[in-house]
Design a protein that fits this description.
Elements lengths: L1 H25 L17 E2 L4 H7 L3 E2 L3 E5 L6 H14 L4 E5 L6 H6 L8 E3 L4 H14 L4 E5 L7 H5 L9 H20 L2 E6 L1 E3 L9 E3 L4 H5 L2 E12 L6 E13 L7 E7 L3 E2 L1 H11 L3 E4 L2 E6 L3 E4 L1
Parallel strand pairs: 3-7, 3-10, 4-5, 4-6, 6-7
Antiparallel strand pairs: 1-2, 8-9, 10-11, 11-12, 12-13, 14-15, 15-16
Helix pairs in contact: 5-7
Length: 309
């Protein structure tokens, strides 16, 4: 027993010496015990959608890469703008890399974004967009960077070349190289990177899902959270003569910080954004605070019985 204890003490001394040597060579904190590093819990911030926060186990993770993808007009940009608004409400700084050159200040303001203090970049090519995003991330002064979108990150060689020239894998190589740098920098700075992505279709696929996201597979690997958003139907006006919104369904396809494959639904009203009241009602139904029967919601009051509305 004494021999085992003596061997354990020697091992601990050797471990401490090795850690001190590594920290002296590569900087303090290069290797550390997790218990002394401030805890293992991943910090989160609200996404701006209550039902989605419930599905994510608290919200979007800080210092991680998040991918939001889906078909056109499914609510990707709206969801990202709500996340930007929440970061600004908490006193943080947010940046939008508008690679599509389609930013709408009026709509963003309606969603609660402080457009006066929002940092906006409209790059000329993909290399410029990702280099600017990486520099802002390394500054430590930005809490959220949103790239809209990966499909619009056109490599410089493609822009300078002629239309119709074969440019195989340029965008995939660009994303792979950039994410190898940016993922580590984002973790150190506590900056969340949100990449919006579009869906493409594989040619010649007869069995299985032909859908694939653009930009190669690097983003799938580096993303801690991948959210698939799709429209679950339109919302009609009271008269039923026009569409006033859509019902969005988000599926957590990948999550390294919470349980994956959960779903969240919410209403997006055109020109207004996500319905906060609708999210509260949906969460109340999920947590069985209210009961939905047809188009009616019921709340059981212990004193006066059932209240219908």
């Amino acid at each position: 027993l004494f021999v085992c204890f003596f061997a354990s003490c020697l091992q601990q001394k050797a471990l401490e010496a090795a850690m001190n040597d590594i920290n002296g060579s590569f900087g303090k904190g290069s290797v550390t015990r997790l218990g002394s590093a401030g805890g293992a819990l991943v910090e989160t911030f609200p996404s701006g959608v209550l039902t989605l926060d419930l599905a994510l186990g608290g919200g979007l993770p800080k210092g991680r890469v998040v991918e939001i993808y889906g078909p056109e007009s499914s609510g990707k940009t709206t969801l990202a703008l709500h996340a930007i608004s929440e970061v600004q409400k908490l006193g943080g700084n947010a940046m939008l890399v508008d690679a599509e050159h389609a930013f709408d200040p009026s709509y963003s303001k309606a969603l609660g974004v402080d457009v006066e203090n929002l940092i906006v970049c409209q790059p000329d090519n993909g290399e410029m967009a990702l280099e600017i995003a990486d520099r802002m991330c390394r500054s430590g002064a930005v809490d959220l960077i949103c790239v809209d979108s990966v499909s619009a990150l056109t490599p410089r060689a493609e822009i300078e070349g002629e239309i119709g020239m074969q440019q195989m894998g340029l965008q995939a190589r660009l994303m792979s190289q950039a994410l190898r740098k940016m993922s580590g920098n984002a973790s150190k700075a506590g900056c969340t990177l949100i990449f919006l992505n579009q869906i493409r279709y594989k040619i010649g696929v007869y069995y299985g899902n032909p859908e694939v996201t653009s930009g190669g597979i690097a983003l799938k690997f580096f993303a801690s959270v991948r959210l698939e958003i799709r429209s679950a139907g339109k919302i009609k006006s009271s008269k039923g003569d026009e569409d006033i919104g859509l019902r969005a369904r988000v599926r957590v396809q990948k999550s390294k910080v919470s349980r994956p494959y959960k779903q969240a639904e919410f209403e997006i009203m055109f020109g207004e954004g996500v319905s906060k009241l609708g999210c509260v009602l949906d969460c109340a139904e999920i947590m069985e605070v209210v009961v939905k029967k047809g188009s009616w919601y019921s709340y059981e009051d212990q004193r006066s019985g059932w209240i219908h509305y």
